Amino acid sequence: MESSAEQDNQKPKGVFSTLLADGNWMLLKGEYQKAVDSYTAALTLKAGDRNCLVGRSKCYLKMGQHENALRDAEASLAGDPSYSEGLYQRAEALYYMGEFEYALLFYHKGRKLRPQIQEFRLGVQKAQEAIENSVGPSTVKLEVKGDLSFLEKDLDKTLPLTDIEHLMTTKKPKTPKNAKTTKLLLGDLYSDKMYLERLLKDEGLGKGQTRRGQRLQDVIKSGLTYIDTCTEFWNKEKPVSAQKRRPKQKKENSADNDGPAQFLLTSLQDIDADLASGKARASLKKAEEVLKKVQGWSEKELPDKKEALGNLHSSIGNALMELGNMDKALGHHQEDLELAKQCNLPEAMSRALDNIARIYTQTGQYERAIDVWEEKLPLVTADLEQTWLLHEIGRCHLELNHYDEARDYGIQSAAAADQTDDVKWKMNANVLVAQSELKRKNFDSSVAHFERALLHARAQEDESAMAAIQKALDETRLLHQ
After folding, report:
1. Which residues lie across from 209 on neighbouring strands?
2. How high is the pLDDT of residue 273?
3. What are the phi and psi torsion angles at 82 (to 5°)?
4. Contact at 8 Å (CB) between 416 and 390?
């Protein structure tokens, strides 16, 4: 029987997990205020939990509270500036605040750290397009050259609190004064704006209350503020002046109407969304249709045509992998790699090599996987990505009974994990070393590394990992006796 003290210690942990799960479920259902309430309650039990902060940031973004979204995104990065979900939320919040240049920097940062996450690539594209719409098209092709170490140092930090406060206090909504411009920007929402403004003038109605006790006047004002914020954002992202600069397009063809770049961006978002939601066949069909369309465009219509084709081959390959068609998937990822090499795109090369190696590991072709992983290794600059890559190479060697090599890569992976202070990968790396040493019959070393891995599992409160490592540790100790 557990003592009452033990039960009291477990209760906050259980309550926290429940609140976090409730918040995630409400976010999924689109009940953002309820999700915020759950995340906030969870944070009172476990202050600074980055899963809660990112979840709440997503809710604030959906609710149009962009400053709050940025605050939570920044807070989630406090312990780890390379935390991908927090980094993406920071970029998204800045984007929707109209700070496109800032957002672009952090989309680029995320893309460099996590080239396999397509949201960062899409973020770069939409931020670049928003900047161009705001200032007009440029004839100058910007290139990443020279000493950019100063920028790398800045990007490794969160935005200073004073900078965040400046963004929040100086950026007031500036809705267009011209009603025609506002109507063009809002589209169908313009009639909603007019309706809310009429309601606000009705003094009798404004004094009423909702079932939850909120004043109707406050609810109406909140709605109008949200619409004004949308108007300001859309005017920055795609101003009417930019729309006027463009020649009129045919409406019957969305690619012609929006322009190749915008059509491609929207299509890739749809393709990625389908794949993420488990609709691999729908994702595959869309990607193949878009690929045919892009193949028919000239370099003049789409200057980055080869890069676009590479992205589409990557999407098709990923969908085919989900559907279990590894041979076809491999062909598309190899096409992606070839295009990336032609364009000298290290991030795309890294992405393609990653996907190719994954196929080889899933089909048991470990020697080939090792060759591909090692080709990818010089392209990796982030410590965390280097950690898991070294670990993957070590796992392949372990599968091939190359125990010395497996141990060596495990030790390198552990050293890289120490640089990032990532507890999960410290655990994984030490397990790899322990397993390799066990096969080499170095029982003392194996026990020591299993014990280290167990400490890291406890630090994460990962019960399944704790149980598995404890079992392996006990069996190793028995062999050592």
Report:
1. 215
2. 79
3. -100, 5
4. yes
State the pLDDT at residue 12.
54
Going by C-alpha positions, the residue among 304, 346, 351, 347 that lies closest to residue 332 is 351
Alpha carbons 306 and 264: distance in angstroms, whole number: 13
Q: What pLDDT shows up at residue 364?
A: 92
pLDDT at 21: 83
Which among 116, 49, 140 has a CA at the least distance from the CA of 349?
Answer: 116
Number of Cβ atoms within 10 Å of the Cβ of 114:
22
Structure tokens at 72: 């939570």
* pLDDT computed for residue 150 by the predictor: 36
Q: Which residues, at least 6 apart from 303, have a Cβ–Cβ distance to it below 8 Å?
A: none
Nearest CA among 97, 273, 77, 82 for reference residue 171: 97
Q: What is the pLDDT of residue 202?
A: 63
- Confidence at residue 288, expressed as pLDDT on a 0 to 100 scale: 94
DSSP secondary structure letter of residue 215: B
Helix 463-480 × helix 423-439 angle, to 10°: 20
Give the pLDDT score at 17: 81
Range list of H helices, 136-279:
149-155, 161-170, 179-186, 189-201, 203-206, 216-237, 240-245, 254-258, 260-276
Low-confidence stretches of the chain (pLDDT < 70) are: 1-14, 116, 132-258, 481
Which residues, in sequence order, are CB contacts of 56 under 8 Å at separation 6+?
A: 23, 35, 36, 39, 40, 43, 72
- Cβ contact 20:28 at 8 Å: no
pTM for the whole thing? 0.52
